[in-house]
Amino acid sequence: MLKEAITYSIPKDHSVRLVQMTDPHLFAEPDGNLLGVNTANSLAAVVSTVQALNYPADLLLATGDISQDFSAESYRNFVKAIAPLDLPCHYLPGNHDDPRIMNLHMQGERVFGQQRIIIGNWQLILLDSTVRGKPGGHLDESEFALIREAIAAEPDKHVLLVMHHNPVQVKCTWLDQHWMDNGAEFLAEMASYPQVKGMLWGHVHQQLDHTIDGQHGPINLMATPSTCIQFKPLSTYFALDMVQPGYRLLELRADGSMQTSVYRVPGERFSPDVKASGY
Ligand SMILES: Nc1ncnc2c1ncn2[C@@H]1O[C@@H]2COP(=O)(O)O[C@H]2[C@H]1O
Ligand SMILES: [Fe+2]
Fold first, then answer.
1. Any atom of ligand 1 within 6 Å of the Cβ of 165
2. Where, in this chain's numbering, is AMP bound (predicted)?
3. Collapsing DSSP states into helix, strand and coil, what is residue 82?
């Protein structure tokens, strides 16, 4: 049975404006760092950068790997860190999250774990692509069923599919072993639905903007940098990139088209240990 969606009422001819933040990898302790980057500080820098823009966003999407240590405090720290944005936050799990602890501790008046959002002319579907105990992803049949039922329930809404794992390979050999392993099947089915206009994910700690031809028009594929460490694009072996922490803004237009850009923290404040060989 399809669970009820959260509905935001904005005029149907208005654009929906989203901020996406992904892979903050927070710790319980404020001095926790991942390969030389203090992840609480880098998230705070991203939040300040977004705040300074005064972007009239409707929602914040947090696309997984909220935690690096599976602690309750790491999730509470995330909720506190995003408070200055004063936006409703919708989250989904990544491979470094514990869904039970996450759902218990991602608590706030406007913090939500539900899978469907109806806003303006759009339906946002938040998918769980995680596989217990594994870094790689897979989309279960139940998630396919959710998408089919959600589209059938709201056939007039454009659809943005949001998830943690990449359904396409990014040409980083070491990282592509952890992609959504049935991504090809997923893409093939989604390309047959006229409603599906975009797919948005995290996990790969790098930007990717790519368009594929669906059977009814283009579908935007979008990956977003982490708010902490960045992976070097097109690398065979694990390698970090020196580009700064980032986030993405999206404007989903009422006609089903979209405008989106990735932004990064200005300056060179965050420099990871480039000799690191993994985590
Ligand atoms: N050297 C490595 N080789 C393969 N996988 C790795 C390596 N280092 C880390 N990983 C895993 O690959 C994942 C990719 O992004 P995540 O943030 O999910 O977390 C990473 C780790 O779980
Ligand atoms: Fe991650």
1. no
2. 25, 65, 95-96, 205
3. helix
Coil vs helix vs strand at 22 = coil
Ligand found nearest the CA of 226:
2
Q: How many domains does the chain have?
A: 1
pLDDT-derived band at 107, boundaries 50, 70, 90: very high
- Which atom of ligand 1 approaches the CA of 238 most closely? 1
Distance in Å, CA 96 to ligand 1 centroid: 10
Q: Identify whether 277 is part of a domain.
A: no
Write out the residue range of the structural domain in which residue 80 sits.
6-264
Binding residue positions for Fe cation: 23, 25, 65, 95, 164, 203, 205
What is the DSSP secondary structure assignment for residue 148, as one 8-state letter? H
Question: Residue 259 maps to which CATH number?
Answer: 3.60.21.10
Q: What is the mean pLDDT of the chain?
A: 97
Prediction ipTM score: 0.98
Q: Is residue 159 part of a domain?
A: yes
Distance, CA of 123 to CA of 142 (rounded, Å): 18
174 lines ligand 1 (CB under 6 A): yes
Confidence band (pLDDT; 50, 70, 90) for 106? Answer: very high
According to the model, what pLDDT value does residue 1 have?
85
CB-count burial class (<10 Å; 0-12, 13-18, 19+) for 188? exposed
b/e 116-153 (16+ beta carbons within 10 angstroms → b):
bbbbbbbbbbbbbbbbeeeebbbbeeebbebbeebbee
User: What is the per-residue pLDDT across 128-174, written as a single tens digit (0 to 9) for each?
Assistant: 999 999 999 999 999 999 999 999 999 999 999 999 999 999 999 99
Assigned domain for 278 exists? no
What's the angle, vertex CA 113, arms to CA 11 and CA 245, rounded to 5?
85
Q: Is 96 contained in some domain?
A: yes
Distances (CA, A) of 62 to 19, 74, 183, 218, 257: 9, 14, 21, 25, 22
